[in-house]
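Review box. Two proteins, two foldings.
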Amino acid sequence: MENAEETSASKGRQPDRNPIGVDQSHAAEATILSDDEALIHAPKSVNELGKLLEGRQLGDYRLDTFVGGGGMGAVFKALDTTLDRTVAVKVLAGHRSADEEMLRRFRNEAQSAARLNHENIGLVHAVGSSNGWHFIVFEYIEGTNLRDLVRQRGPLTIAAVVDISMQIAAALDHACHRDVTHRDIKPSNILLTPEGRAKLVDMGLARLQHIAGEQDLTVSGITLGTFDYISPEQARDARSADIRSDLYSLGCTMFFMLVGRAPFAEGTMVQKLLQHQQERPPEISDMRAEVPRRLISVVHKLMSKRPQDRFQHPAALEFELLSIAEEEGFDVTASRPAIDIDLATADKAKVFFWPWVIAGFSLIGFVVWTAMNAPQKKSNPDVPQVVKPQRQMLDDTSVVHVVSQPSQPDEFGTIAAALAHLSGGGVIEISENSEYEISPTRLGNDVKITIRGVAGKRPVLCITP
């Protein structure tokens, strides 16, 4: 059974007779649902919630069309009457929830998601409450989710699978650097725009689905479909889920895109959970012989039962998929990946010198960490070896800028000059869409340098031996 989310088209709904933004006189027709009316007609399912609130005014938002349900509540295509723009509004199931802890987490998770600003992530605009209804406002994305697309057209081309997977890995890389874990990667949470851009939605909100589920499984909209893509460790304890859990779910989603079904599509909830824990997924080559063996190996690695046996960071997955795309001659929509480099780890050091990494990738989240003169340290295999910038790097004293014409003490003309200034670690921000050369540099032990483009800029870093 799949997730309860449905588009209005899949349910055979009539088209919107009053397109958003066409006739503003209709805004006055939206009515506000009173507390008494909400309690009298308390919805027992997400669909009932959608019918109850469709056409109503919720704060500054007119809920024009109920487009689906699932997770925490109902999703509407809405009009932001203040800014006159189309948005998506998700209304939390349960009017005037008495669980203050749940509402606190709802706000915290929404704020965490709002920190994300990436071309492959559905943006969060606002979070609020009105007349006892709690809601979150998202970017409205024109497109089709992968679940419906595959149901309608069958398995995707191999090139499309590689491209979409690279884009979602890039989204997870961006989120990982901001300590946000999705926890519910699945085809219905990935939208594909007409231009081929993949967008990951419900970012950072899946934890709330678990909380809501403890309250009322029916109202929260949780279905067996969620368990088609859940990692073994998340099934045991949702609090233990980290980025590697998201990567497992992405592996299941890649399997779905390649063959048109989830890896463990049959059975009850318990049977599915046991299969994720114990069984090897079906062999992709038996269902689709033309899938490259290297791509199958990527899916198998992502779906390893033990987190330490998977890719340990989304950037590593991006690199492997990019290499496959170049090997197979695929054109991809995804940007070249940003990378994490740990020169104290031999496998990651090899990544540093890959010749095809030289051109075209974003510097956002690019981290250099070297301790080549330090003895190797044993690492805990259960913990991802991910280098994250320390919070103190964000202090003004540790941020320098690379500009074309330096005029301030914290401005430099080259990355090499900026690196020399940051002998103790820090952040280098690049303000131009230009190419910059950098050579492998020996830094002090445990020194960490983050190199990134300023907002809206995508410079190119050329790594020379």
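Next protein.
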Amino acid sequence: MSETITQSQTEQLNARQKQLDVLDQLLKPEVQESLNTLVEQLPQLTELVNILTKSYDFAQSVATDDVLKNDTVSAIS
């Protein structure tokens, strides 16, 4: 029983240390600058993802369109 409690306490201490490590990293000026840059670029990233999604949907619809496939094969033959 005491092993379980000790192991649990050790895991809690490790988790706490990891949280403190993350906080220490977040306090660094270069990390804050990078995060600010990322936040500033989010609207452009969102727009890019939307465009890529539309392009993927179009390519997927073209690739699975049986009528287009048949017409293309007929035009080539």
